[in-house]
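User: Can you recover a sequence for this backbone? Please restate the input before giving your answer.

Assistant: Of course. Working from this structure:
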């Protein structure tokens, strides 16, 4: 199985681990970078809906960005609730190696990132209405490229499922190209007053906890995924089916 997660807007520039490889799609990212470097600060403010100070920082980062193996370790460079709750510092090297084989981070800029890939700080969302060459947006630019890479990789695994722990924005970049029988959404709900719903903050935390759980257990089957019980979550057997796994907890 492969586990798919979203990146974060904010990034850190201090990491403890040394990257082991370049992102698989760095050459396609390089073409994207050439287009981004032509943008002005005003363009970035318009396309990314950010204020001037952040647009200036974003442009500076892209202008200075290059592709090499001496960057930052991806799983540490992304900064956000999901990544904090992965608790990387508590994982043994064998567990980190497991994540390198099973965890994939979707990226609007790099395409697909493995945990120990070398990346540089950047800010780019998949939903950004940025025209690249003859493509009207980033979804069109990446097309089925990301899905092809994931499907090729997952076929080397014991169970050929893609477990979706990503946001709607990023799943849209791959879901149309993945066979229905291989796609499984992992959903985390909070129950309050008898009603259940997905709460964004709680879901981000739960996704991080799930990745930590998968790494510690070195999970290889869906049956093992069902055993997740961190932070009070339990499997909803009635709502869990062929294309979704639902966990819930009391709020």
């Amino acid at each position: 199985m492969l586990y798919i997660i979203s990146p974060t807007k904010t990034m850190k520039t201090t990491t403890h681990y040394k990257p082991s490889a370049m992102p698989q799609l760095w050459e396609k990212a390089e073409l994207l970078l050439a287009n981004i470097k032509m943008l002005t600060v005003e363009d970035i403010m318009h396309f990314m809906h950010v204020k001037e100070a952040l647009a200036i920082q974003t442009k500076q980062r892209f202008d200075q960005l290059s592709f090499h193996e001496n960057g930052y370790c991806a799983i540490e460079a992304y900064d956000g609730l999901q990544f904090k709750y992965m608790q990387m510092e508590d994982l043994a090297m064998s567990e980190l190696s497991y994540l390198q084989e099973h965890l994939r981070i979707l990226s609007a800029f790099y395409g697909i990132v493995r945990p120990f890939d070398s990346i540089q700080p950047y800010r780019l969302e998949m939903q950004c209405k940025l025209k690249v060459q003859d493509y009207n947006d980033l979804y069109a630019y990446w097309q089925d490229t990301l899905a092809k890479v994931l499907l090729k990789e997952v076929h080397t695994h014991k169970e050929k499922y893609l477990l979706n722990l990503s946001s709607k924005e990023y799943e849209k970049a791959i879901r149309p190209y993945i066979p229905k029988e291989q796609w499984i959404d992992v959903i985390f709900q909070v129950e309050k007053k008898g009603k259940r719903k997905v709460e964004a903050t709680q879901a981000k935390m739960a996704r991080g906890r799930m990745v930590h759980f998968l790494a510690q257990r070195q999970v290889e089957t869906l049956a093992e995924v069902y055993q997740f019980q961190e932070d009070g979550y339990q499997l909803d057997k009635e709502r869990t089916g062929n294309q979704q796994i639902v966990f819930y907890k009391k709020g």
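That completes the design. The first strand starts at residue 2 and ends at 5.
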